[in-house]
Amino acid sequence: VKVVAALLVALAPGLARAGACCASAGAPGFERLATWEDFAFGVRSGLSSSLGGWDDRGRWAADRDYDEQVWRTEVYGLARVLGWASVEAHVPFLRTSRQAGDLSGADFGVGDVQVGLRAALVEVGESSLPGVALTLGLVAPTGRASDEAQTALGTDVTGRGLWIPSVGVSLEKPWMPWFARLDAAVSAPLPAKRGGHDRGESPGVSGALVLGRELGKWFTASASARVQWAGDQRLDGRALPDSAARESALGAGLTWHLRPGLAAQAAAEVPLPVDGMGSNRNLGLTATLGLRYGGAW
Amino acid sequence: VRLLCSIALLIAGCGEAASTGAGGDFTFAVTSDPSPLGLGRNTLYIEVTADGAPVDGAQVEVDPEMPAHGHGSTESPQVEALGGGRYRAFPVTLHMPGHWVIGLHATKGDLAADDSIEVRLR
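Predict the joint structure of the above. Result:
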């Protein structure tokens, strides 16, 4: 399959991203290496504008005397290793502006860097079986945590202050021109001494379902549903009551294959503003633009 | 505008604020400016009594936390004694919407008391 894909790249570049192997590779926010790619890198930049949030009882309420705009720009890269696996790294930069009551402010900083390993057990499109990959992730506390905030509104907070390892699985099934992908992961934040306390978080679970379709030669459209459960917050070894969190959101994306290997991406995500679809989380409407390039050595 | 609102009254009369009902050797009565508590910087006026008598010279601490976010406030409230068992804490900065728990802690000699106020802001 890889040889055929490589030949397609050489002989008919416009078709390079087509085929069962590669349809979802450039879906915004769910990037992976296409079968014919040895590397990919890109940048995406998105603006999230707060809409409201769910309280600890799961009730949704729109923001009233609060406004938050987060401009997140992420540089990322993926590289194939050992033929069947890939490594990736994501470096985010955040500019946060907030207005709460009589306070307002804005700041900029580097967020938490994330690295990951994806090991393909069954390559997508190689058989009638769904593609299966195991994923390992690690979020490093390179951003500024809340207890290190220098501003009254915490606009300079860009990270969670914890090492967060995760393990997951990704299943993908193409029915060209359609594809479906299901990602699920378990994360287990490691406790850390912060602000004079041992802080931590019970394990959490996240999942995302992506459905997509190639639209002719130049475009791939996708729709996604994402859920996340975060475990109880832990302070000095004890779980804090009513501190677990949930969130859910729907998204849509469009990938424009500009030329072989090069794609422009657009995506939008909105939380489900309904009681019971989340708790202890604030979310906003997010619009993202990106540019991705993938190639072979 | 100040709304006199004791810890006990906060449960029934102050909308989204409630006391956790902890206790100790002292009783707290709390008012806030603005009232009810809101996003941004707030001032708490805390009256500390023991058996109805005002307690002066206590060490009073105020600690806002967002339990579900795993962090506290971005600013540490400074507490000053006003006399007559009254204390003023500022800034009590609630910098984002959500569920806040404002811990109150007072000690004097061998006596101590803890309580907290829960606030849901949007």
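The interface with chain B takes residues 52-53, 55-56, 61-66, 68, 98, 100-103, 145-147, 149, 151-154, 157, 160, 195, 199, 201, 233, 235, 240-245, 279-280, 282 of chain A (CB under 8 Å).
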